[in-house]
Amino acid sequence: MDNASYLTDQPFTDLDLAPELIRGLETAGFSHCTQIQQLALPLVLAGKDVAGQAKTGTGKTAAFLLAIFNRLLRQSPHAEHGAKSVRAVVLAPTRELAIQIHRDAAQLCQHTALRMGLVYGGTGYQDQTEALSHGVDVLIGTPGRFIDFYKQGLFDLKGVQVLVLDEADRMFDLGFIRDIRYVLRRMPSPAERLNMLFSATLSRRVTELAYEHMNDPISIKVESDTPVADQLIEEVYYPANEEKLGLLVGLLKKLAGERVLIFCNMRGTTEKIGRLLERQ
């Protein structure tokens, strides 16, 4: 959840965190804040909304999860809270990110009685509906599946006390902003909930979203304006469609022995490339 290169001398024990969360951090082996945690946690623990610019791997996930859990442990449910109400919502642009957030959440809240829920598209429909039928306190998910289940009446948003939008810039890139606004307009007003937004860049459109649906958020940054990690080297190729696979195989041969991640924009393309590489 965090990276040693980002650690500060701020111990979690100096923050106003519930004892159950301190135990969760100790069990997970975390003792000191990262930079984004040191900046964000004092603000959100005091009830201030935050719009944070942070790269992946800086500890932002733990920052907003600790803020969520602390809020729910210290405050009673909303007056409108019902049997199907969720108390906190975390929206992420991809199912992989949603799954990772849920995994981190389970680790940090293991000494509490808070119930986690996870919803995302592509698979797991029956298991997800079954979990929602038992009620959840914190619901983590991707916008499409989230709205699908909401429209089915599997949960309601009238008791939401905390909202998190993670990787907000990717929400725009993937065309989810209309869905995000649909969800936000069905929650209590921004003044009645704690709001957090995190993004690799705080662009004009992300900032506008923050000020439209948050309560006077405080902007924090832990990096330069470039979203690319310093240790990464970017190269761009422009092959014709029929040349792409050959180019990919050639590049992989140059990287023999290295671990490689390949991202595709469609499931079918991913499967096709996987079969091709298995034959090589």
At the fold tier of CATH, the topology name of the largest domain is Rossmann fold
Report the count of strand segments. 9
Can you give the mean pLDDT?
90
What is the CATH superfamily label of the largest domain?
P-loop containing nucleotide triphosphate hydrolases
Give the biggest sheet: 7 strands, parallel
C-alpha Rg, in Å?
20 Å
Task: Pick out the low-confidence regions.
Answer: none
Helicity range: 40-55%
Note the beta-strand portion: 5-15%
> CATH architecture of the largest domain, please?
3-Layer(aba) Sandwich
Q: Structural class, from helix and strand content?
A: alpha/beta
Total individual domains: 2
Taken in chain order, the helices and strands follow as EHEHEHEHEHEHEHHEHEHH
Q: Helical region count?
A: 11
The best one-word shape is globular
Q: Write down the CATH class of the largest domain.
A: Alpha Beta
Strand order of the largest sheet: 5-6-4-7-8-3-9
The end-to-end span amounts to 35 Å
